[in-house]
Amino acid sequence: MALIEIPGAQDVPGGATVSVTPVDEVGLEARAAALGTRSIKTSSKLAALDLAIRCMDLTTLEGIDTPGKVRAMCAKAVRPDPAMSGIPSVAAVCVYPELVPTAVDALQGTGIHVASVAGTFPAGLGPLDVRLAEIRSAVAAGADEVDIVLNRSAFMAGRYREAFDEIAASKEACGRAHLKVILETGELGSYDQVRRASMLAMLAGADFIKTSTGKIGTNATPPTALCMAEAIRDFADQTGTAVGLKLAGGIRNAKQSWQYLVLVQETLGAEWLTPDRFRIGASSLLNDVLMQIAKLRSGTYQRPSDFTVD
């Protein structure tokens, strides 16, 4: 076992010391593959798909986003399919800071959270004062969740204290809002680095750790999700602090969603299968889940054109 070299940062509430265990790459990938083969009984699939929707974050992060597009996404977040009864609302919508007021207005009274990327997303390499000001602005506009990216430049160079301090400052800038820290795992190079980055972000105050921005080629994968889930489990065991997990990027079909639900259940337990502790970033997942629900209810597949395109 080893400690992240952050002077003064290893001591957490309760006096515990957080250790970083080297990752058994072969064992991790084998376990992730085995969990991916678990089947869900037909009688349980509807419940799993319902839970997947309740844990979804609908996201639009494009340069051509408009208030009209955000309002349409918010309407779908509230009622994913008006033609089907009993479909729950999603957990949150995620937009750029400029469009937070539009989302807040559209979702008023629904209980759906408004998340904003901030801190010069997706690179996260702007001047720190600019990054913190953007976080404060998003929260002032009504965001109750903020997604920032880990400073991979500092982290990969071994400047752990710098990366830690930036997350801690971002957490302070969030005030009442929850902080999600995106690790951008596809750029970290190894599972050891993913685990180290997970521990660092949690030590610094992250309320959630998140796989990806969705802006690079490698996004969420089962082994990476398992690596992060095991870090969350060990952090909770060592500190008593429960941190959430968000999987984002490349999750496009219902089968993948329930495989990740199984992974979380088996690694972290049923208490993590709630929107307060687990999220799926879904830009294209929701429609496939709705199609599967319609199939299970009616016995026949619907056409993709029967559902609105986000």
From TrEMBL:
A Gene Ontology cellular-component term: cytoplasm
PANTHER family: DEOXYRIBOSE-PHOSPHATE ALDOLASE (PTHR10889:SF3)
GO biological process: carbohydrate catabolic process; deoxyribonucleotide catabolic process
UniProt-recorded name of the protein: Deoxyribose-phosphate aldolase
Naturally occurring in which organism (per UniProt): Actinomarinicola tropica
The EC number(s) this enzyme carries: 4.1.2.4
SMART domains: DeoC
Matching InterPro entries: Aldolase_TIM, DeoC, DeoC/FbaB/LacD_aldolase
Signal peptide range in chain numbering: none
